[in-house]
Specification:
Helices cover about 20% and strands about 25% of the residues. With about 375 residues, it is α/β, with parallel strands linked by helices. It has two domains: about 170 residues, FAD/NAD(P)-binding domain (3-Layer(bba) Sandwich), CATH 3.50.50.60; about 130 residues, FAD/NAD(P)-binding domain (3-Layer(bba) Sandwich), CATH 3.50.50. The longest helix has 15 residues. The protein is elongated and about 65 Å long.
Length: about 375
């Protein structure tokens, strides 16, 4: 029997997990091609923070080495960004002209970081924190420069700040809200967290609004100025202020999007030949930014791609963990939140998705083996 053609746009954790689940259920059903914009095989994005902190290497976080693709008959187009979906001809086209026909298409385009719309946000030394390239730049900068500012006091921002501090930088975390991780922690727990991180040498500026990033004599960023007139030195500015579902490709193909690629409980878009999973998706009005829901989506999607047709994705209960280390000893401070994320968009930019909010906010702070509730 002639195989159907499945094209996956996105070589990240959600898309490749869907392929793995599909291969378990129906290994001979599809001829599979995968496009990945990054020049790497699938890796564990969650572990970029330990790489930054010097605990792991890039090779340690590779989930599917190049050999895995060839062993499973998957054609990998690495370092190629898909720029067009031709729904009439049923094919995708990459920026370099590479084309693949499809019978079924899976979109797993992930999310893009939100960069504050302030003067100087395009200066050298101003970066987001989303991928290997960002992590490599942070490691390289830490070896040659002293001052870093991290904009955003959520999970990602705090892990970035901790990693840069461990690499010898003088780090200031800038946060708009009155306390850290306000979407996961109440003020008392956040104050405990702040005290713990200050003991590690991190500095914090809360309730601060960035007005501009200042160019230095070298041409790269040199300082950060706030609306109250305060300036702090910054050879590196890391923006960790939220993410947006990456819907540009889907929208260009006139696939319905509403703060994410809209899918039903079988992970199908409004085009039944096209599925979507991961951070690019909006399911029942919710876009998830944590890995567990993404893997649940991938499993349901694979069930339907394999023609079983019995699985449904009805949403996820989520929790988060903050991973930090001090001088070789792992000391964890982590909130445990249960409940489905609620919509509470940033009023300044309604499409930005910060850390998910929990309906209930129980938390547990673990410090050197002692539990404080």
């Amino acid at each position: 029997m002639k195989k159907q053609k499945l094209v996956v746009v996105g070589n990240g954790m959600a898309g490749i997990r869907a392929v793995e689940e599909l291969l378990k259920l129906a290994p001979d059903l599809y001829d599979i091609a995968v496009f990945g914009a990054e020049p790497h095989p699938n890796y564990n994005r969650i572990l970029l923070s330990p790489v930054l902190a010097g605990e792991m290497t890039i090779q340690d976080i590779i989930l599917n080495p190049l050999g895995w693709y060839s062993d499973n008959g998957v054609r990998l187009h690495v370092g190629k960004t898909v720029t067009k979906i031709d729904r009439t001809a049923r094919k995708v086209i990459a920026a370099d002209g590479t084309e693949e026909d499809y019978d079924r298409l899976l979109l797993a385009t992930g999310s893009t970081p939100f960069m504050l719309p302030v003067p100087g946000n395009d200066l050298p030394g101003v970066i987001s924190y989303r991928d290997i390239k960002d992590t490599d730049e942070m490691i390289a900068t830490a070896a040659t420069h002293k001052h870093a500012a991290v904009i955003g006091g959520g999970l990602l921002g705090l892990e970035a700040a901790n990693g840069l501090k461990l690499r010898g930088m003088d780090v200031t975390v800038v946060h708009l809200m009155p306390w850290l991780m306000e979407r996961q922690l109440d003020r008392a727990a956040a104050d405990m967290l702040k005290t713990s991180l200050e003991a590690r040498g991190l500095k914090f500026l809360l309730e601060k609004q960035t007005e501009a990033l200042i160019r230095g004599e070298s041409g790269r960023v040199a300082a950060l100025r706030f609306k109250d007139g305060l300036e702090i030195p910054a050879d590196l500015v890391v923006m960790a202020a939220g993410i947006r579902p990456n819907t540009a490709l889907a929208e260009s193909a006139r696939i319905y999007c509403n703060r994410g690629i809209v899918v039903n409980d079988t992970m199908q878009t409004y085009d039944p030949r096209i599925y979507a999973v991961g951070e690019c998706v909006a399911h029942r009005g919710i876009a998830y930014g944590l890995v567990a829901p993404l893997f649940e989506q991938a499993k349901v999607c694979a069930n339907h791609l394999a023609n079983f047709g019995i699985a449904r994705y009805t949403g996820s209960v989520t929790s988060t963990k903050l991973k930090v280390r001090r001088h070789g000893r792992r000391r964890l401070v982590f909130p445990v939140g249960q409940g489905r994320p609620e919509h509470s968009p940033d009023s300044r930019s309604p499409d930005v998705r910060p850390e998910p909010r929990r309906r209930r906010r129980p938390c547990r702070c673990v410090e050197s083996g002692h539990h404080v509730r």
